[in-house]
Amino acid sequence: MTPPPWTLRGHGLVALYAPAPGSPLGVLMLLRYVSSPVGPYDELLWVEAPVASPAGPRPRVRSTLVSTRESVEWGRRNWGIPKRLARFEWEGEPGRGQVRVTGEDGQAVAHLAFRTGRRSLPVTTAPIPAALRTLAQPALDGGSGWLLTTPSATGHVSPARLTVLHADGLSPSLVQARPRLTLGVPDFRLVFPLPEWA
Which domain holds residue 85? Predict the structure, then answer.
């Protein structure tokens, strides 16, 4: 059993998008967890905000791909995050390279190229209002209600570049869009608490 809270550590990239006029803001995250309650794993996720929920407009994870079945099972069960299993193939060196993500059916889901800078600054999510970082996820797998989860994080960020070469498994429009802001995250500590129900 691996119920919340979870503390995860790792590194990755975060890119902020505004795909089209009138559409929700989106955040694409490419993360490599070096430690978690279910062991190391990779994750590629697409978050939109604001999205309507019983708690009001909140961010929502629309699609998530992870590299282990344990992360799929407990992410869905603990927080209603719609995780799917995928294979991550990395090329390059630390701070610069590419990753190809393939679904369980063998179909290409995403292909990204990235580069991160060397200089970094410390950051924390503490100053961000809770409503802006509270995920609102409808219950999955036959459940009812909504799960509201307010994660917190500390770490460092650096300038970065992310190029989406293929993203049919997330949002095809990402190939045409350019991120408004891209940050490398050379190290982070992320806490996912027990969710509230709405």
Answer: 6-197
